[in-house]
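Note to self: keep these together.
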Amino acid sequence: MMQIEGVESLPRALVLLGSELAVVIIICVVLNLIARLVLGRIGLIPRMHDHQERLAGIRRQIRLVLVFTCIALCLGVVLLNGYLIYRQTDPYVQTTEWIDAIPSDFWLKLALGIAKVIGLVIVGRILISLLQRLLNGMMQKAKAFEGIRANDESIEVFFTSLTSILSNSIKFLVLIGAASLLSMPENLVSYLLTALYIYLFIAIGLLVVKAVAAIVDSLDALSKKYSSPDNWLRHYEKLSILIPLFRRCLEYVIYVAVASLVVLQLSFIQHLAAFGPRLTKVIGIFFISRVIVEVGYIVIDRFQQEQEHLTEKERKQRLTLVPLMKSVMKYVVFFTAFLMALNALNLNPAPLLAGAGIMGIVIGLGAQPLINDLVSGLFILFESLYLVGDYIETGEGRGVVESIDIRTTRLRDPGGQQHILRNGQIDNVINFSKRYTYAEVEVGVAYDTDLDHAYAVLQECGRQIRENNSNVLDDMQVQGLQNFGESELLLRTVTRVKPGCHQQVSRDLRKLIKEAFDREDIEIPFARRVLIFKPQDEKKLPS
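Structure:
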């Protein structure tokens, strides 16, 4: 028979290997029978009659775990014996030495520990099943609260995550308990506890993020439901644009807190946890600055809306100053928030501001057009050259002023196009909205027209338009014969109207004049085209 060096008897080694495999298989079979017996007894309890399917699922899971464990142990036994033979060590002798070194009560303690572990696994599985039922009932009650459906998805995500976290935590605790019951090394138990803490911190942090989403969605829906112009929620619609930002800021705060707690569990990077509170302050400063800006917008808009006792000029002045006030307030708040954020990060802003001042001087030398725009914008505002709502004309365009910023002016021309003009380039401004303006209308009549009769008709048209149009301030003035044309006499009229109304009044007046001239048989000359057709076969007459 083949002899392997270091192995006294190969058949004995093979018999030992078979015996070890048989012991492993028998232990797994016995454990499966014990688990089946225990679960069968539990199933006989009256209260557990409704949970037979879950008990059957637990039995299947235990059987599956035991099968995989048995296969893994058998492979381990085969590999261990093969390794001993490879090292030229007799497996029988080595196994005998290991068995002799084991205390006499080890096997009893091992059997008791395994039995306790099996019981612990069963208890953990039952707890998970009960927990799932409890949380499912709580989820249904939360969905039915106040009959609000907008937050159902957030609530479902929250409770699903909570169920998963608690189930995994119970499994972690079962694993740690099994390690303790089987007298595993204390370092292993300590590492498992640290891993459990890190998992709980991360999982609970993510759960809180989902809870924040559910709570914010619920409060948002309730606020919209109960808001009305008569209660303190009347401004909620304007502030609701902060809800997404509020959620993001809370999420970032939670992430920073979770990261800090995780870092504290790892001794080699614990010093990084000091940055957590600083970052939280920065996030809070940023969010509060946005809230201040939005509240400031509401206050400024409220100031603008109080126009009952204002003149037209004062109303336009307010419309002009409101965008400027909003811009200045926003920049001041954000600049202050930036300085506070630097302070929260323990950074001295003084050197940064000094460097920014030097940089500003350098940049300013190359930004003279920008400075020119800013200075021109200030003079336009302070001198009230034109206001929002005025109709102006410049070399760059004409139209109604929509807004005046420190750097630019925006015009809307009669064609609906918006012109954005730099304040430094605006010159030769013609303002049609100062006190009054004239609607100028010129109309041509034939040379054989009775001018006195035409003047009378024009005066009647002026009287009609003043009666029917509140924008007309005075009677129309017929200034007389303006020019001798090639085929017409050009008559000129002017009508004083309210600022910015001259174009529409001119259109209405032209319509009245055309209708009146048609009634009075006053001809308005226009060019006529005469076409002469010559036959192709026409011969030239002899000269």
